[in-house]
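Researcher: First entry.
Model:
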Amino acid sequence: MPWFIVSYVRYVDRLGRGFGVIAMILTYVLAGILLESSLARVLFGVSHIWSVEMAQFAMSAYYLLGGALSEQDDYHVRMDLFYSRLSPRWRVILDCITAPIVIFYLFFLFAGGISSSHWAIVNDQVNYTAWAPPMAPIKIIMTVGIGLMLLQIVAIFFKDLARLLGRPIE
């Protein structure tokens, strides 16, 4: 494979791993939010209006930013009815066929995320709840996560294509 494709794959793998580590740390943030909420309710009889919503935002950021790493490490969910029965070569062929479909889908999802994030910033969009937090931060995180996933799927497509050609990218 050309050097620029190999460089792209290595850079995207590092980027996805870095954001994956950030996503892993978010599980502690999520646990902290839920612990604070539980302790406040049990010990002080106080219920915070922000805790459940903030936990939802932390969980959303966790799975959106961790998507590229789970794709890179092949931990994503796959309909494994026939795939597991295929030989490694046919798995790579099938992955090369389905990757452009996923790339197409993620491209339009990413474009929609950019549009939605822009709208949330320009119009100061807030969530329609009692707490009414701004929506721009989570929409930006959503767009970044989808963008990372798009980059990672392209990198995996290049890896599969290189493996199919007999010149794997390590």
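Researcher: Second entry.
Model:
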Amino acid sequence: MNNRTDKRGGVTLRSVLIGFAFVPVNVYLVVQWETVWGAQYPTTMGIFFNAIFCLFLVAVFNLPFKKLVPEKALSQGELLTIYIVLLTAITVSGHDFTQGLFCSLGTVGWFATPENEWAAIFGKYLPEWLTVSDHSVLREFYEGESSLYTSHYIKAWLEPMIWWTLFLTVLAVTTICINVIIRKQWIEREKLTYPLVQLPYEMTREDALQSFFKNRLLWIGFGIAAGIDILNGLNYLYGMFPAIPLGYDLGTHFTDRPWSAMGSFRVQVNPYAIGLAFAIPLDLQFSCWLLFLIWKAQWIMGSAAGLNLPGYPFVDQQILGAYLGIAAVALWMGRRPLWQIMMKVIGLRSDIDDSGEPMRYRTAVLGTLLGITSLVLFSCRAGMSALFAIFFFLIYFTIVFSYTRMRAELGPPLQGIHYAGPIQLMVAVLGSRGISAQTFTAAAPYWPLTKELRNTPTPFQLESFKLAERAGMDTRKLWKVMALTTFIGIFVTFWAFLQLNYKWGGIGAWRGNSAYITMERWITNPVEPDSSFIVAAAFGFLFVLLNTVMRLRFMWWHLHPLGYPLAGYYHFEKLWFPFFISWAVKMMILKYGGIKLYRKAFPLFMGLVLGEFVIGSLWGIIGLLTSKPTYAFKSW
């Protein structure tokens, strides 16, 4: 370990301030891209391309200092602190974390009409301290061509802004505490691979000038990806330039039953996806693309059998059950260390040592309990029933726990659950008849927060601890910086969201409408418990358990349970082929060249990722400066 990194611990004042300097522009860009233009969507990815771009800029700028005045150069720990600050701020500014929730705060006040009767259904239950109903404030918020900066508007939004910022900050800090509890088990004992930390770690190594930035294969990969994106970007703006097609839908050739039932069947070749998949363990690569084909087979076999069940094969419900199964397996495998932690927390004899942890285990456990309690009390004060709130957050934290496990072990470019989150599960189990209109009204802002669950802070926090462990950083300082960055990132997101709404009018308004339309349907047309939902979720749960048992008992069983929910997620249809390509290349490299050739080839694939991330970010910045949408290298 480098002495300077070890001595300074990485988390220095200058590194934190540099990170904070990047936060406003990145948050503003995220809101502009995702909510104003509906393009790029960086926070739906497993790794944020704009964070990598900023780290690349700082790392390159730091190279001359390392060569000429090394005592003034940023250490690896400092570079990673900047990156972690960016990760934290960007994830809490995301499409499915803050932005969706903020879109619901004025929905009833503006869209209530005599026809939809929202004033009667929701109006009397809306908490005034969390929403805005004043038409004089909402008119230009939804119509645009105005400015946030009037005392009337700021006063109206200030109280909801403060309360929701505190709520989301508590939510994120609670997951920091959970990550402290599981950190040692997953990072040091099980030694999970954390594929998504490879690129930022290699970019910031103390010998990066020799080992990374002077690697010829890295720049070959960079040039291939960058060249494709530059040409396609020019074609997007000026049709005279040729474009390089990156995908084709084979499904257009399958028009007869039962083959037509599989729908879209894309063969997509995205350089960044091939590069990111290369860092994933071979058995997980294999499982992901093969299980994607198995998902398609379910559609085909259902059509061949003449099944006419609405929603078959209940993909989203199976995925939800699979994530619950992943959480159950992870808890069972870590049951002994967790028991030792609990013994230490209550003051009994334990072999667990927490002196090197980001915080004491007692603090982490108490923080988790206090955090969940605060979230439940907040929800109850907003009008939600206590039992609904308790089960909502238990399900939510179980899902994000399994998300974090998947990211630590698999490191996919994306993951998610489509419209099968905590609220849907509770309605499926209980039916909506027994849930009050007041509870549904209070739950409406949580709907856009959990309907997809693509970006949640939890896995990024644990990956930050993994980077800190590898670079010898001071995690006791780091978690406090992460907590402060969370608060700042959420507050800045709210500011950017309000400012852009008053400028453009009603950006993302459909998300708030979607939340209240769903709640209205459950209130006015109550549904009974959904047996199909429950059976499908149980199947997904059991599939994960069965595959886990098979992997533990039989060496020849190569299917990995983590691949099942990822392969079924609807966006994965554009990533299965890059996984297949990366698997085939990696298998050949390991078979004929061994680990030595794999390590030699690795920079080429990191170059593919870096090339697309740098040029993709530049196209986004050009679009922001010109107020015109530009080429988006992502395919979902």
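Model: Note on the second entry: The longest strand covers residues 247-249.
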